[in-house]
Design brief:
This is Putative structural protein. This protein is of the alpha+beta class. It has helices at 6-12, 17-26, 41-50, 85-102; strands at residues 32-36, 69-76, 80-81, 106-108, 128-131. A hairpin with a 3-residue loop joins strand 2 (69-76) and strand 3.
């Protein structure tokens, strides 16, 4: 059975309860690594400058405490944590479906407008998941 590393758990613990509950359920059947929960000012602004984020501090859902966003990537046996597009899209769909089952309203960085069409996105952040209030 998959489980989170201490580092992943620490990052997940910085997140909103709904995200903690969701990924606690996800890890039971799909191995993954938590890359970010709460994101400090330095990192948020660095990612903005690099083009990895569209917003500066403090305008990301990662910049609240608890964080209303989490970045998580699939962990594949024999490969490790991966950002490979096909694996990440598969994982994102799995997370979305589990959230629907649990009644947790999320938005995917793979489908910002939540229209189930990933081809109409100008900015892709496949392994970003955020709470929709």
């Amino acid at each position: 059975m998959p489980y989170f590393s201490k580092q992943s758990l620490a990052k997940l613990d910085s997140c909103h309860n709904d995200l903690i509950e969701l990924f606690t359920e996800i890890i039971k059947t799909f191995d993954c690594t938590i890359k970010w929960g709460f994101r400090p000012e330095y990192w948020q602004n660095l990612y903005f400058k690099q083009g990895s984020s569209k917003v500066q501090w403090p305008n990301s859902k990662h910049n609240t405490f608890p964080s209303k966003a989490v970045d998580a990537v699939p962990y594949i046996t024999g490969i490790g944590a991966t950002y490979e597009d096909r694996q990440c899209y598969f994982f994102a769909g799995y997370v979305l479906r589990q959230a629907e089952i649990m009644g947790i309203n999320i938005r995917l960085g793979a489908d910002w407008d939540s229209d189930k069409n990933i081809n109409d996105q100008a900015f892709r952040d496949i392994c970003h998941f955020e709470i929709i209030a």
